[in-house]
Amino acid sequence: MSSKKIGFWSVWALGVGGIVGGLFPALGVVIQIADVGAPLAFAIAGTIALITTYAYAKLSVAHPCRGGTVTFLNQAFGSGLFSGTLNLLLWFSYVVMLSFYLQAFGSYGVSLFTSTQPIWKHLLISLAILGTTGLNLLTANHIGKSQIWIVSFKLGILILFITMGSSHIDISRLQPVSVSSLQSIFAGAMVVFLSYEGFELIANAAEDLVNPKHTLPRVYYSVIGFVILLYVLIALVTLGAEPIEQILAAKDYALAEVAKPIMGQFGSVLITIAALFSTISASNATLYGSARFSTVITKSRGVDFGSKINGLDQSSIGLFITSGITLIIANFFDISRISTMGSAGFLLIFAAVNLANARMYRYTKSKQWISILGTGICLVALGMLIWFALQTDPQTVWVLVLMVGVAIGIEVIYYLSKNRQLHL
Questions:
Q1: Where are the alpha helices (DSSP H) in 208-253?
Q2: Is the pLDDT of residue 305 over 50?
Q3: How far apart are CA 10 and CA 43, in angstroms?
Q4: DSSP 108-144
């Protein structure tokens, strides 16, 4: 049995790999919103994630299973309307995050071509969705086995970018952050909060981890701490090496563009390859988890999951549904809107996870005030994000309302169809 267990570095690679895929689409977005305050915006978003990891670490140790967030919410609040709605909202947010990664894959992929016509980007996005769907159908048992090597490869390239780029920084481009720009910095932090979400995947590996009580907290905190430092340093090098106008002109593939004066054309291609590896591996892992999310949700409702429809099991049906919705969102939604929707969904979920740990603090042996603080911070951040969206793109808020409304509606229909009493 011990041979099946995985160690610290395997789970650390899973967490970092799940997060760093969000850097490539997020970098241009945060610079567009926060300007020279982008490094601070990444630090603020990371701090919120770091506070939330306390709840995840405690809950994962108390409930070391593959259910992750779904299990935590069901244990704290029961299988009622509240937890059921949040579980569905988490699945919707996974779909949004998947679209976020795939748009970056398409943008960086098309930057390798001489022609940057939109049709090529849409073609790459669609092929990536179809490819990862097929991979999940054919080799589901082998997904993630090479995660350490993939993460090592892309981190090596990013660290090389930081090392070489540090000598190209023009200090005059890194102006001090003014008080008047704090609003845009906080807005940028909330919009790209999605780029930190991948640490939630660590909870799903808790059951297979050697000595989870000791190892899990170390994995959570070290992963988030490392990624915050990585994001801040990359943002500093990016802003210091190129005029901001040039960065924004290529904001969908900003890192590859900035790499040209730092590492040459070959270095730019290396960054692009790292982006493609990073986003497609993160997409694959996210699709794998979200497509099988129906298994956990259905079991939590006491529904038989063993039946097949036209030869397909429920997880395969979930895979096709997830892929189909992602195909539409990734091809027809703007990346800024996608990041806003995803960040809003995860801030709401993480507020609930913090609240779950605060409610079960005796059982999880936690300091209740930390998770209460985490709940408040996530809700304040969500409020700031909604306020910013109302000022700049009100349609995004309506999409979020629709996501929540559909989640509630599905839960209500479930209760009515089963003639069960509706309760929170």
A1: 212-241, 244-249
A2: no
A3: 25
A4: HHHTTSS---HHHHHHHHHHHHHHHHHHHHH-GGGTT
